[in-house]
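Q: Structure for this?
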Amino acid sequence: EPEVTQTPSHQVTQMGQEVILRCVPISNHLYFYWYRQILGQKVEFLVSFYNNEISEKSEIFDDQFSVERPDGSNFTLKIRSTKLEDSAMYFCASRRTGSTDTQYFGPGTRLTVL
Amino acid sequence: GDSVTQMEGPVTLSEEAFLTINCTYTATGYPSLFWYVQYPGEGLQLLLKATKADDKGSNKGFEATYRKETTSFHLEKGSVQVSDSAVYFCALTVPNQGAQKLVFGQGTRLTINP
């Protein structure tokens, strides 16, 4: 069964450094998402991406964040200058199409900012 | 804005006990409702969903009925197993509204003791 994959599973970085989190969505899916979950808190929407552009973003997704689909298979989230409060689990999700289609999630990348 | 409220956890039960995890929602449109499960060390997996009022979603012995009159989508299972120990998230999305991002509840940690 096709699945969403994410790499790395765990990333440790120093405050102020740039990180890129990578995702490979399911191949025939058209909508892509990033969510994050700070330890002990809710899963929060960050951004959605469709047709090679951002379709919606949350207040969390400020100028430090960017997304890209560089090669037709990968979907990346970049954090330009990490802060301590960016430490969280980051989940990628994809959806095929249609208003009731399910979002399928990857296993997540745990980002630790020191 | 749209929101989901789940019962506070953690919940600890004995094997074969009856499970209910309450979930209520607030939405501006007509949401689709989901339960996702997160097993230890893994990502979010769709457990079940319902897309319109009075629909019942079911999977792996779990059930939830979309109740528009009470804006609820409570998760139930008649006889839980140790393997059901996980964190359960109630979520909604509003079809045909923007990117159809998922809005999650805070999650309920369930532990089943043998």
